[in-house]
Amino acid sequence: MSACCVFLGEALGDYHFGESHPFGPHRYAAFKQEFDRRQLAKAVHIMAPAVASTQELALFHTPDYIDTVQRMSQSGAGYLDGGDTPARRGIFAAAARVVGTTLAAVTAVIDGECRRAFVPVAGLHHARRDAAAGFCVFNDCGVAIEALRQHHGLRRVLYVDIDAHHGDGVFYSFDDDPDLFIVDFHEDGRYLYPGTGRENETGRGEAAGSKLNVPLPPDAGDALALSRWEKCEDFIRRVQPEFILLQCGADSVAGDPITHLRLSVAFHGEIAARLGRLADELCAGRVVAMGGGGYNLDNLALAWNNVIEGLLESKTE
Ligand SMILES: [Zn+2]
Q1: How close is the Cα of 294 to the center of ligand 1, in Å?
Q2: 164 CA distance to ligand 1 middle (Å)
Q3: Is the bond preceding residue 86 a cis peptide, omega within 30 degrees?
Q4: What is the side-by-side strand order in the sheet with 2-7?
Q5: What digits encode the pLDDT tens for the residues 258-311?
Q6: Can you name the residues that pair with 5 across neighbouring β-strands?
Q7: How do residues 88-139 score in pLDDT, each as one tens digit?
Q8: Ligand 1 centroid, distance to 256 Cα (angstroms)
Q9: What's the gap in Å between 8 CA and the centre of ligand 1?
Q10: Contact status, residue 98 vs residue 16, Cβ threshold 8 Å
């Protein structure tokens, strides 16, 4: 079994909203250039992107919403939400490819082809079951959680999110689900989109206590974030997940143009390594990491490759 699969392919970079949008067309290329510079191809198993079928999208999304995206993607006019997420021509196929690639990563890890996996550009955590939001058309994290349950027979899944924005599309789609555990670090919602993720939100009804929101003040750095992480490791050991998903958005790193946190790119590598060690202890090493946000290309390139190195650094049997 190889230690880590990384999904590479120019086609993943088709998921973007044009030159003048923060989620622009150069994110994949920036990541790949740094991946090549570090010669990581020698250390990982490279796999190709895949496209999700409509049935796979419907594991999480409503049929009406899938139809709407397909129709608007043909015209390429207007917005899929209130004004953040343009209906760019071809966005349906590009978004379905992001989802299909995350699903392929989950399958590769479940099948034992590799112990962990990384998918750049994926981690579109704001999309709801029936709506686009915050640059996210289809929520590959949500589809992956449903696939782990419905296709692979797992129940206890841990979703960790260190993107600067609260992963509201995942959180509120599973807030009454007692077996979907969440650890979500984000900039305090009083200062940043989407405004949610208060510490006292831990899940509804019988799911109370299954989610951990960790809002950080604007300007928070590694020392504060790592001190908050310690408590999360106790939580993760207690909930005993069968599989771990990591959304490692690089927009929480200092210098991002649309957020205010001041983490370093080392934080992302550190969390990946720590999660890898926890996964070895709890769930046969199974971690799938998804790139997430990040609108400063240098930060994104360094943070995402640090995540790959962090996943590799933890032991491999
Ligand atoms: Zn973000």
Answers
A1: 6
A2: 5
A3: no
A4: 45-47, 2-7, 114-119, 287-290, 243-247, 157-161, 180-187, 211-216
A5: 999 999 999 999 999 999 999 999 999 999 999 999 999 999 999 999 999 999
A6: 45, 117
A7: 999 999 999 999 999 999 999 999 999 999 999 999 999 999 999 999 999 9
A8: 10
A9: 22
A10: no
CA dist., res. 57 & res. 218, Å (int): 35
From ligand 1's centre to the CA of 166, what distance in Å?
Answer: 7
Cα–Cα distance between 49 and 251 in angstroms, integer?
Answer: 24
Q: Enumerate the active-site residues.
A: 126
Distance CA 112, CA 109 (A): 5
Residue whose tokens read 């992302």: 268
SS3 39: coil
- Which domains are assigned to the chain? 2-313 (3.40.800.20)
Phi and psi at 219, nearest 5°, equal 80, 0
Which residue reads 């400063």 in tokens?
A: 296
Q: How many residues can be counted in the chain?
A: 317
Percent of the chain predicted with pLDDT > 70: 99
**Whether residue 50 has pLDDT greater than 70:** yes
What distance lies between CA 184 and its chain's CA centroid?
Answer: 11
Does pTM top 0.90 for this prediction? yes
Closest CA to 247 of 204, 294, 297: 294
> Residues 215, 188: contact at Cβ < 8 Å?
yes
24 and 18 Cβ atoms separated by less than 8 Å: yes
The strand pairing partners of 116, in sequence order, are 4, 287
Return the axis-axis angle of helices 140-150 and 91-110, rounded to nearest 10°.
Answer: 40
Residue 240: how many other CB atoms lie within 10 Å: 11
Distance, CA 307 to ligand 1 centroid (Å)? 16
CA distances from 192 to 52, 86, 141, 159, 280 (A): 31, 20, 21, 21, 34
Ligand 1 centroid to residue 215 C-alpha, Å: 13
Of 88, 76, 117, 65, nearest in space to 15 by CA: 88
What Rg, from alpha-carbon coordinates, does the chain have?
Answer: 18
Supply the pLDDT for residue 315.
59
